[in-house]
Amino acid sequence: MKFTHFDAHTHVQFPAYDVDRAEVIERAFNEGIGMINVGSDAAMSRHAITLAHKYENGVYATVGLHPSDANEGFDYEAYKTLAQDEKVVAIGECGLDFLRITEKTEIAQDAQKAIFLQQMKLSFEVKKPLMIHCRNAMPELIILLKEHKEMLVPNSVVHFFSGTAEEAKELLTLGFYFTFGGVITFVHDYDEAVNTIPVDRLLTETDAPYVTPVPHRGKRNEPLFVLETEKKLAELKGISEQEMAAQIIKNAEKVFSIDLSA
Ligand SMILES: [Zn+2]
Asked: Residue 35 forms beta bridges with which residues?
């Protein structure tokens, strides 16, 4: 099947889709939307892989430990086994999330950094890019990436980029790609960052079941709605929706080493 749109960061393996998972994927496929189901802990990473294997192509997986789940602990060898699966296209979501930390901040931050570095090492070992989650910690993340540049796999991705235009420039220099989700359809906070990033470094995502875009606010999100984000990105970059879609497919094929035209 040929895919013409791409949801680079979604979670259809999550329990939110237990009742209608196949239909959700079918609705996306009917519009030519391929997807990556992103792991957030060991169980969700395994579910993402199992789901990907149900489809010949167009459904991929990542394996990783979300910083907010860092207390689960990172079993390097177990994740390495998962990471070698042919359907796994990236390591993550991993990164730093200082948004919800209130107590014992320093310890929690150090633990998150240590677990992120292990995933950076895994990404380097299996030669698959990082899928980074970062909230309220962009300066710290950039410092870590620079300090360990020798382990940074080219064409890594920052998902739901929420940093400044300056930070976007630093990440561009490090070779990063950026996915944007539904939030750009209802706030303007990210317009400047989007304008800073060239179209050949952009990807689209839903982060479903979270952050539903306009005009579907209030409903559960799903990969189908990535079309709204793609439309908004095209508008912000001043190109047609068709051009944006074609560019996104090209970028996704390059970053994740997949063939979406087969
Ligand atoms: Zn996510």
From this structure: 7, 59
Whether this model's pTM surpasses 0.90: yes
- 262 in any annotated domain: no
* Structural domain boundaries, residue 216: 5-256
For residue 132, report the distance from its CA to the centre of ligand 1, in Å.
Answer: 9
pLDDT, residue 106, reads 58
CATH number at 212 reads 3.20.20.140
Where are the alpha helices (H) located in 127-164, listed in sequence order?
138-147
Q: What is the pLDDT of residue 107?
A: 62
- Residue 143 token pair: 């410092």
How far away, in angstroms, is 146 Cα from ligand 1 center? 24
| The 130-135 sheet, strands edge to edge | 5-10, 33-38, 59-63, 88-97, 130-135, 157-158, 177-180, 202-204
The reply to whether omega before 230 is within 30° of 0 (cis) is: no
Considering the domain boundaries, does residue 159 fall inside one?
Answer: yes
Q: Residue 210 C-alpha to ligand 1 middle, in angstroms? A: 8
Q: How many domains does the chain have?
A: 1
Averaged pLDDT in 10-residue chunks for the chain of 262 residues: 97 97 98 98 97 97 92 93 98 91 67 96 98 95 97 96 93 97 86 94 96 86 96 96 98 98 82
Residue that has been written with the tokens 């001043």 in this structure: 238
pLDDT at residue 144, rounded to an integer? 97
Task: Classify residue 261: in a domain, yes or no.
Answer: no
CA of residue 182 to ligand 1 center, whole Å: 12
